[in-house]
Amino acid sequence: MPCQSYAPYRAFKIDVQVTTGKTLCLHSAGRRYKVSWTISPSGQSAQKVIASFPEQLEFMSEQDAFRYAEKRAHTFIDGMLSESPTVSTQ
After folding, report:
1. Is residue 72 part of a domain?
2. Which residues pair with 47 in a beta bridge?
3. Among 72, 58, 65, which Cα is nearest to 18's?
4. Quick check: pTM over 0.70?
5. In whole angstroms, what is the distance from residue 15 CA to residue 19 CA?
């Protein structure tokens, strides 16, 4: 299961995991990728997870799955910080 950690974004660490599966296509089985991502404070242990999301979408390539999850995590963090002034980014 390929995993990737990204540089901290607004003081939060983003970890993405991609899993490979097979989906029935019109004429044969095709390879598809599913993705999940977690967010934790970058200065603390990875055990303190703020959010963890398995996406329901399937992707044609691993790279597409990683890009999508990183963008979704950034959007989630932006929304979380704009709605909750009490969330600490330190």
Report:
1. yes
2. none
3. 65
4. yes
5. 14
Contact between residue 41 and residue 48 where contact means Cβ atoms under 8 Å apart: yes
Look up tokens 């979408």; give the residue: 57
29-73 pLDDT per residue, tens: 678 899 999 999 987 665 688 899 999 899 989 999 999 999 999
- Give the DSSP H/E element, type plus range, for residue 1: none
Q: Is residue 14 part of a domain?
A: yes
Task: Report the alpha-carbon distance of residue 51 to residue 69 in Å, rounded.
Answer: 13
Single-letter residue type at 25: C
Dihedral angle of Cα 68, 72, 78, 79, to the nearest 10 degrees:
150
What 3-state class would DSSP assign to 12? strand
On whether residue 90 sits in a domain, the answer given is no
Name the one residue in this structure whose structure tokens are 């969330």: 87
